[in-house]
Amino acid sequence: MNFTVVGSTDNPVLHWFVDGVRKTLEREGHVFVPDSGRANGHDGDSPSVGHAGRPEPESPATAEPLGLVLNVVDPERPRPYRRHAQATFVVSFMALDAPPEDGNVIRIGYPILVRSLANLVICVVGRPVQPTPASAPASSGTGVHFVTIEQGHYEVPFDTTGTPAGEQQFFQRVYQRLEPLATSTLIINNEFIPDLPEALWNGDAQTEAIFRAGQRLAAMDLLPTPFPIQEVLSPRDQHHLKMLFGIGGLSYGNISARHDVSSFWMSASGVDKSNLRIVGQDILLVKGFDSARSTILLSVPPHVEPRRVSVDAIEHWMIYTEHPQVGAIVHVHGWIDGVPSTPMNYPCGTVQLARAVAELVRQAPDPAHAIIGLRNHGLTITGSSLDEIFDRIEGRVRRQIPMS
Ligand SMILES: [Zn+2]
Fold first, then answer.
1. pLDDT at 3 over 50
2. How many domains does the chain have?
3. Which of 52, 70, 84, 211 is the most exposed place for a label (fewest CB within 10 A)?
4. Do 22 and 152 belong to one domain?
C-alpha cells in the first residue's frame, strides 16, 4: 500500500506519534510517497467554504492510487483531505493535552472526522511518561483514541515501560488497529436499472413490513439523531462524503426483507427510517451484485430519481444468497449482551465487514435467527420476518455499545 503524510504540527507528542506510525508502516512493507505539494487534496485554509466542485487532476508522480493518507490536523481548523479515489483511506491525526473532563473523546473527535472528511480520527491524548514504574496505576485515558465513522471508539494506551522495545510494541498495537481498516474495500457503487415491474411501483406486503419496522425502531429509540453535517460542512464537502461513502445524512441502521429467491427490499441510505414509504427512494429492490465491478444492482421504477441503497447492502446480499430461510435482516446501533462479535471493527459498507458478519451467521446454531455483534458498532439480526425479529429483540437491545 502507498501512503503519505500531509499537514504538520508543532505539538511534539503528535509529531512523535505520526513519525512512529510512519516508521511502523514502512517496516511493515508499505511505501511512503512524499506529499507532492500539489495538493493532494488540501486546498487552502477554508475547509468550509465551497469551491468549484471540479476534482483536482491525479498526481502524475503516483502510479498507484494512495491507499492511506495520514492527515495531521489542528482541531481548531481541521483541513479536509479530498481523495481522488474512494479506495484512499484518510486518517486525521490530532492531539489533546489531557483527557476531556467527561471522558468523551467521540464528542471532540467526531466533528473533526466529519470536517476533515476522514474515515477515522486518531487522537493522541496526554503524553507517554517515560519511564513509568511497572507498579504505576493503569493510564487514565492517556494514549491514542480511535474514533470511527460509525461512532466507534477504542483506545491503545501508551506503553509504560519507556524502553525502545516497549515503544515499538506500542506502535505495533496501533498498526494492528489501523491496517485492517485502511486496506478494507468499500462496496457502495450502485447501478439503477429502471425495470421494476409496475405492480411493485407502490410496494407490496414486504415494503409495508419495512415501513412498520422503521416505526418500531423509532419507538425503541434506536434511530440516533443524524449528525447535523449540514451545520459543519459546505455543500461541496457534503457532496464529497456522499459520493465516497454513500452517506446521505449519517443516519444509522438499516432494514431489509426478502422479495424472492435472489432479491430483497432494503432501506435507502441516509433517509428518515421512521417513514419508509416511497419505492426507489426510501426502499430499494436489490436484485444483484456484480462482483467484477463491485456494484450493487437495483431495480427501480422508471419515473423516480432513485436514492442509493444502504451501504450495508453487500452484507445483506451475502446473507440472503447463502441462507434461503432468512426472510428479513435488521441492523441497529445498539447491543445485546452475550452475542458473538466480529473480531475487527471493519468500516460499514466494506466487503471485509460483510464477510465477517456472514461468517458469524454461518456459525450460528440457527442462521435464520441469528444475532451478531459488529465490534464497536452494533448488531445485525436475521429472522424469518421483520415482525418476528422485533418480537424477539424488543426490550433486549440497549443503546450503549461496548467499546473495545
Ligand atoms: Zn451501522
1. yes
2. 2
3. 52
4. yes
